[in-house]
Each structure stands twice: as structure tokens, then as C-alpha cells.
Design brief:
Structural class: alpha+beta
Number of domains: 5
CATH architecture of the largest domain: 3-Layer(aba) Sandwich
Strand content: 25-35%
Bound molecules: guanosine-5'-triphosphate
Distance between the termini: 57 Å
Helix content: 25-40%
Strand order of the largest sheet: 2-3-1-4-5-6
Number of strands: 32
CATH class of the largest domain: Alpha Beta
CATH topology of the largest domain: Rossmann fold
Largest sheet: 6 strands, mixed
């Protein structure tokens, strides 16, 4: 199609502001799906996505729209993941577009993710159309939302489109705005092929499916292509577009968006942000912005039953087929046996993987506390990267430790600022900016150690703000910090899987809180159990779990036998997620106690 009649756009929004609902409405209005065909929210394909109501993977849909001027346009809607963990994927999806709809809930106004996403779009040079959604709600305030868009985001809001994605009111105006306000793609079909990969996944029937935006040149069936980041060559077997049903076509040309299936066996070969070119007529360079994805959050995964270890490995391998952004390698722990060290893009990503392992593969897992990767310069000048506390080097050989730092944007109402400031101080934050964007809304910008965020930051923020604070963050650098390894001893024995890395200045307090929490979590045994926190050989805190005095079963003697059975079953159920370490049964929650000490 003539690029003049193509519009590629994304929808960006804060979580729950109505992105999926609006996508569905656009599909319905362009006749891509009839209302009956449309099971609610087709773009969120995976079960988990639907359940959690967030978009994890980016997809794209081609719609045909005949505008009021009588001209038919090809509109490619590129869906973006809705969470900070996936911000690189968001940025590559945005790089595939010329424009974006910035959806803002008229009853909530601009939130942290609205801003973060808007900045990503602006940095990618996109034209932005603000969409003010949920105007059917009695609490909708269109003038105030416009004002916030102008003040906080810095975008003119005079052409903002007020809509209700739910009722469909005003949505036809969005389609007209897309056609008239967004620029058309600028590439050249006769130049060598350069296509940007913005999503890929493994399909059990068709193999690896790649979504790409053709920036220059053409892509066609039978073409020999080369992936420019790794030089690998494949043959295109099929290509097509999602309408959202897949429809095969013969070729894709500059400006268009579609999927292709090639002789690719491994989804890890198709990196998001990579450039696809013609192997016989290669482009001179890659498209800008490519980065290798790096894990940010690390944890150990073990099965409760050590016989299930190979099942866990098989499950991790299967999940990796579909998600090349998480990594795992075997590790072993004196306490937990054989398991895997896993790296994730962020906390949500970690939760998703864990949930899928348990749900789809029916595994009972013990997870160790999540942590980050430190860069350690040794006194001999060598440099180590350590993400596993059990590999922490001896303090005497450490010269300097660098920890990853994020810049966080927090939006909240004035009344919660006090509580939030206290929290970010406690979490070692440094203030970068404090701004009133309306007389009652505040935007805080802080630098914070990622290590503090992966602990309980998000839950604490929610509780101090009663849910009225939104957070977005991205990695911005490192600080040199005096981090120390804190060991936990159970009955005098250090349990390697319980060790954590903490800042020296908060180590004493954290140690105290941690052993206190563990005392609550470790059930009473037949004997007394001492729980201690230690830094090196120095014990910094201690608590004791007292012994059980009475035999619980004894209570039921002479009583009803079914009651006794129930009690035993209940105990067994409780045991499921316990790991026996030495003579002590430690439940899963105790391994994650550090997440609960705030
Ligand atoms: P994520 O995928 O989690 O980022 O959320 P989203 O931005 O896609 O939001 P979604 O479309 O799932 O909408 C969130 C909630 O708002 C749902 O309960 C919708 O039914 C509701 N909603 C969306 N648009 C409207 C609207 O125009 N009016 C009203 N009243 N509710 C809406």
C-alpha cells in the first residue's frame, strides 16, 4: 500500500486507564471484529494477562478504515506491554510507530506511567494524540485532565479527544484524528530491507513467529533474511498480518507491520529491537536503539520435593522457549539442594514466571528472596558480578561495591506526601525533584537503590498512600555503597539460602526485624530453635522459637476420629511448602521474610 495511506500507532496509558477497552472498541468500529466474535479484550491473549488484567506481550493488529473523506487507510495498532518491567519492549514497539494515543482516565488524571510512557513516545519522536477516557463516569473532569496533560506531560491538549471506550462515545473522532494528525511512514520500498523486530514468540504449531515493522525495503515469501545482531540467516516461509486473525500475504513493504515465520528454531535468536535485512542485499547498518536485554532481579528457585528437580528444569526450558528475557542456570544450596538461579526483567516478570511454573507445571516451589546484581571490584583489581549472596566474596578482599540505581517517578495527592517521603528516606532515596503539577497533585522524582525496590517498596508505597500513589521507574546508574552480607543461623547453623545483601547502615535494624519475622513464621518444633542474624562472625540479632509443650494429637484422644484425621491433613497441607533444614522445618514464607519486614 502507498505509505501515504498507512498509519502506525500505539496506545499508551497508565494501568487501568482503559487501553485494552479502547483497543477493542477500535477493532469493533473498523469492523475487524464483530461484537459477537469479540470475546472481551482480544489483545490480551494469555490467561495470566487476562486474569491480572495487564498486557504483557506486544501484538499488532491491522485495521482498514474508510475515513469521512472517502479514502481507505491501513491502520496498524501496535500494542505495548503495560508494565515497567517491559519498558525496553515498550520502547521498541513505539519505535515501530509514527504516533501514539495517550489515554488518560478523566477521573484519575495523569499518573506515573502516563508520564513515563509519554516520555518514551516523545523520545522516539512520535506524534501524540491525548485521549481523555471514561467521560461517562460522574467523576470525570475533562478540563482538569486537559490541564494536567499540559502541565505535567507538557503536551498541548487542545486537540485531545474526549471519549468513553466503554460506551463507544467519541471513539469515531479518534479514528479521524489518527488519519489526519499522525504522520505517515517515511521509508523507501526500493531500499535494502530493514525491518525492526518488536515481538516474537514460540507457537507450538508454527514455530517461532516474529512481529516486525518494515522500515525500508520489502519482505517476501522465500526471501533469505539475515538477523543483523547475530548474523544468522534464515528463509522466510510465510508472512502475514494479524487482523487480529492471522491472514497470510505475499509481501510486506516499507511502512507496513506484520508477522513472519522463517526457518528459525530458537526464539532466543529473534531479539527484540534487532534489524532483519535481506541476506543477499543487506542494508549497511542496523536500525538504532538495539540493546541486549539484561536481567535485573535474581532469585533461587528450588522444588520442595527434591525428586522434582528435573521437572523444574524441563519446565524452565519450556518457558524459555517463549520468553527469552529470563535466564536460569543450575545452582546448589547446602540447605535446599539442587535448584536454579534465575534472572528476571523485574518483580512482576518474576512473579509471572513463578506462577506459571506452579500453575502450568504443577510444581511446588521454594523461592529465595529476590536480589540484584552487584559489581564488586576486588583489592587485586579484578571485577566480579555477584547476584547470589552465597557467592559474596570475603570482605577483606573487597575494594568497592557498586549497586544498581533507579530513577523513580511517584505521583500522589498532597496528603500522602509525608508518608511517602518517610518511606523513600528509609529506603535510602535521594530526592531529585518535587513538583506540584496541580494545587493538590505532587510529582516526586527520586533516585533509589534497586535492591530496596525489589524488597517491599511497592506494597509499602501502596499502604502509606492508601493506593493513591503511582510509581514508574527505570534503571539510571550505580552508587558505590558499603553493602554487607547478612547470614541467618537456624539452631546455630548458617542457612545459605536465607542470606541477604544489605546496606551496612541499615543492617542492624533489618537483622532485628528479620529474625523477629522469622520467629513468627517458623512453626514451633519439639525443641527450642534459635534464629540469629550475623554479619561475618558478629551476631547482630537473636530470637528464639520456643518448643511445643503439648502434643496436638493428644487433644483429640477419645474424641471424634474424623477430627483427628482433619487435623493431620491440615498439618500435612501446611508441610507442603516446608523444607527440612537440619532438624527444623522451615516454611516458604520464612525464605521471603525479608519482603515482609517493613
Ligand atoms: P492494563 O491492560 O492493565 O494496562 O489496563 P488497561 O489500560 O488496558 O485498562 P482496561 O481496558 O482493562 O480498563 C480498565 C478498567 O476500566 C476496566 O474495568 C474497564 O471496563 C474500565 N473502563 C475502560 N474504559 C472505560 C470507560 O470509558 N468508562 C468506564 N466507566 N470504564 C472504563
Amino acid at each position: 500500500m502507498d505509505p501515504k495511506y498507512i498509519r502506525n500507532f500505539a496506545i499508551i496509558a497508565h494501568i487501568d486507564h482503559g487501553k485494552s477497552t479502547l483497543s477493542d472498541r477500535l477493532l469493533e468500529m473498523t469492523g475487524s471484529l464483530t461484537a459477537r466474535e469479540m470475546q472481551a479484550q482480544v489483545l490480551d491473549a494469555m490467561d495470566l494477562e487476562r486474569e491480572r488484567g495487564i498486557t504483557i506481550k506486544a501484538h499488532s493488529v491491522r485495521m482498514m478504515y474508510t475515513a469521512r473523506d472517502g479514502q481507505t487507510y491501513q491502520l496498524n495498532l501496535i500494542d505495548t506491554p503495560g508494565h515497567v518491567d517491559f519498558s525496553y519492549e515498550v520502547s521498541r514497539s513505539l519505535a515501530s510507530c509514527e504516533g501514539a494515543l495517550l489515554v488518560v482516565d478523566a477521573s484519575q488524571g495523569v499518573e506515573a506511567q502516563t508520564l513515563a510512557n509519554a516520555y518514551l513516545a516523545i523520545n522516539n519522536g512520535l506524534e501524540i494524540i491525548p485521549v481523555i477516557n471514561k467521560i461517562d463516569l460522574p467523576s470525570a473532569d475533562i478540563p482538569r485532565t486537559k490541564e494536567m496533560i499540559e502541565q505535567a506531560v507538557g503536551l498541548p491538549a487542545d486537540h485531545a479527544v474526549p471519549v468513553s471506550a466503554k460506551t463507544g462515545l467519541g471513539v469515531d473522532e479518534i479514528l479521524e484524528s489518527i488519519v489526519h494528525l499522525l504522520p505517515h511512514p517515511k521509508g523507501h520500498s526500493d531500499a535494502p530491507l530493514q525491518a525492526l523486530i518488536f515481538d516474537s514468540w514460540f507457537d507450538a504449531y508454527r514455530g517461532v513467529i516474529v512481529l516486525a515493522r518494515i522500515i525500508n525495503g520489502r519482505m517476501y515469501k522465500g526471501q533469505k533474511i539475515k538477523l543483523m545482531s547475530n548474523g544468522k540467516v534464515f528463509d522466510i516461509e510465510n508472512l502475514g498480518v494479524l487482523t487480529p486473525k492471522p491472514v497470510e500475504i505475499e509481501s510486506l513493504s516499507a511502512g507496513e507491520v506484520g508477522f513472519f515465520v522463517a526457518t528459525i528454531k530458537n526464539v532466543a535468536d529473534t531479539k527484540i529491537g534487532d534489524t532483519v535485512t535481506d541476506a543477499n542485499h543487506p542494508a549497511t547498518g542496523m536500525l538504532p536503539g538495539f540493546e541486549d536485554i539484561k536481567s535485573m532481579v535474581f532469585a533461587g528457585l528450588y522444588t520442595v520435593d527434591s525428586h522434582e528437580h528435573t521437572l523444574l528444569r524441563d519446565a524452565l526450558e519450556k518457558l524459555r522457549l517463549n520468553d527469552s528475557s529470563f535466564f536460569f542456570e543450575p545452582e546448589s544450596s547446602a540447605a535446599l539442594g539442587f535448584g536454579f538461579r534465575c534472572g528476571f526483567l523485574g518483580l512482576l516478570h518474576m512473579e509471572i514466571i513463578q506462577e506459571r511454573l506452579e500453575r502450568e507445571f504443577n510444581l511446588d516451589l521454594i523461592t529465595t528472596a529476590p536480589g540484584v546484581r552487584y559489581k564488586i571490584t576486588m583489592t587485586d583489581g579484578s571485577v566480579l558480578e555477584v547476584d547470589n549472596p552465597s557467592r559474596w566474596p570475603d570482605v577483606t578482599s573487597i575494594e568497592k561495591i557498586e549497586e544498581p540505581i533507579i530513577t523513580a517517578m511517584i505521583m500522589t495527592n498532597e496528603e500522602y506526601v509525608g508518608g511517602i517521603l518517610k518511606l523513600v528516606e528509609e529506603k535510602r532515596g535521594k530526592q531529585k525533584n518535587f513538583e506540584y503539577i496541580t494545587p493538590t497533585r505532587v510529582m516526586l522524582t527520586y533516585e533509589l537503590p534497586l535492591n530496596e525496590i525489589v524488597l517491599d517498596f511497592y506494597d509499602r508505597l501502596k499502604s502509606v498512600s492508601r493506593g493513591y500513589a503511582s510509581l514508574d521507574y527505570h534503571l539510571t546508574g550505580t552508587w558505590v555503597s558499603p553493602m554487607v552480607k547478612m547470614d541467618i543461623l537456624v539452631s546455630g547453623e548458617p542457612v545459605d539460602a536465607l542470606s541477604i545483601i544489605v546496606h551496612r547502615d541499615v543492617a542492624y535494624e533489618r537483622g532485628k526485624a528479620l529474625v523477629h519475622k522469622m520467629k513468627e513464621l517458623i512453626p514451633r518444633q519439639m525443641f527450642e530453635v534459635a534464629i540469629q542474624a550475623a554479619i561475618g562472625s558478629k551476631i547482630v540479632a537473636r530470637e528464639t522459637v520456643t518448643a511445643i509443650r503439648k502434643n496436638v494429637i493428644a487433644k483429640c484422644y477419645g474424641g471424634d476420629i474424623s477430627r483427628k484425621r482433619k487435623l493431620l491433613e491440615k498439618q500435612k497441607e501446611g508441610k507442603k511448602r516446608m523444607k527440612r533444614i537440619g532438624k527444623v522445618d522451615i516454611p516458604q514464607e520464612a525464605f521471603l521474610a525479608v519482603l515482609k519486614i517493613g
